[in-house]
Recover the amino acids of this structure.
């Protein structure tokens, strides 16, 4: 009788553990699939932004045909890639590299850098890639948890019976690391390319004012001598009102 009860308890324990493990596997797989769908939404948004970006660049840099064609081909390849992370990784990585080259050539075209449509598209692309990068980190974390369960015993036994397989990591980098940085300073937006500020960073850098164009004590066009007597000498620290000697 005792042996029978012990066997029943063991069987019940195995069944309960199996159900619990199966539920955890299903939950991990569903979480991984949902996190990938979120990334896929942002990838499609990036694909949609690229044609307008290419057309804008073409209007100012039409002879950069090779680079523009590479971007279009990489975009088409990414669009037609399979729905899984493993299938999308290589295509999206190639697209990111092509986009990085496209952004870099803008440094040689001041009119393109000053174009509002270009800067707005670049801003939207950068925000989209930020969301892709954030989603990739979360997705890869869920993949790690799922794959650990699939590889570990005894959960691997239940994973095989439930048909739960390992998922692929999404390793494709976005173009954010290669894209220029927008600097909205005086004179419109300037874009610094990768590395040391882009191929024309030295030309794009603001030049210092010529010697003698600004008198001591003048800041941002303010002249401390304005409205004061002829004998007034600027002092580093003074608090005088107009008309006071």
């Amino acid at each position: 009788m005792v042996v029978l009860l012990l066997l029943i308890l063991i069987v019940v324990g195995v069944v309960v553990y199996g159900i619990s493990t199966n539920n955890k596997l299903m939950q991990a797989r569903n979480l991984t699939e949902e996190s990938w769908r979120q990334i896929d939404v942002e990838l499609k948004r990036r694909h949609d932004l690229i044609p307008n970006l290419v057309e804008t660049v073409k209007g100012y840099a039409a002879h950069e045909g090779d680079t523009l064609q590479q971007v279009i081909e990489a975009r088409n390849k990414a669009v037609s890639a399979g729905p899984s992370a493993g299938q999308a990784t290589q295509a999206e990585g190639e697209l990111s590299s092509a986009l990085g080259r496209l952004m870099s050539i803008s440094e040689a075209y001041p009119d393109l850098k000053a174009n509002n449509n270009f800067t707005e598209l670049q801003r939207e692309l950068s925000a989209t890639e930020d969301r892709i990068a954030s989603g990739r980190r979360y997705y890869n974390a869920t993949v790690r948890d799922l794959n650990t369960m699939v590889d570990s015993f005894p959960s691997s036994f239940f994973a095989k019976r439930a048909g739960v397989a390992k998922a692929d990591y999404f390793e494709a980098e976005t173009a954010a690391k290669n894209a220029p940085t927008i600097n909205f300073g005086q004179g419109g937006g300037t874009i610094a390319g990768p590395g040391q500020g882009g191929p024309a960073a030295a030309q794009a850098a603001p030049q210092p004012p010529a010697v003698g164009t600004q008198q001591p004590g003048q800041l941002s066009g303010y002249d401390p001598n304005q409205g004061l007597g002829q004998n007034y000498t600027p002092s580093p620290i003074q608090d005088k009102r107009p008309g006071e000697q």
